[in-house]
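sry for the spam today, last one i promise. C-alpha cells for design, 56 residues
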C-alpha cells in the first residue's frame, strides 16, 4: 500500500478503513459490510489509486 511519512489510520475487523495523510491534506474513508476486510486487496487497491492520483 502506498504511504507517506506521518500517515495514520485504522482498519477494523468488520470492514471500515480510515487513513489520514496530513502531508497531502487527504483523508480516505472506506466502509464495507464484510468481516476481516479492513486490509483486503480491494482496500489496498482503492487507497493506492487515490494516493497515485494525488501524486504520493
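last one done:
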Amino acid at each position: 500500500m502506498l504511504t507517506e511519512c506521518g500517515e495514520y489510520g485504522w482498519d477494523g475487523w468488520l470492514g471500515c478503513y480510515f487513513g489520514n495523510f496530513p502531508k497531502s491534506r487527504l483523508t480516505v474513508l472506506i466502509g464495507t459490510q464484510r468481516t476481516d476486510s479492513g486490509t483486503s486487496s480491494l482496500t489496498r487497491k482503492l487507497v493506492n489509486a487515490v494516493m497515485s492520483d494525488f501524486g504520493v
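Residues 8-51 form one domain. ok im logging off now
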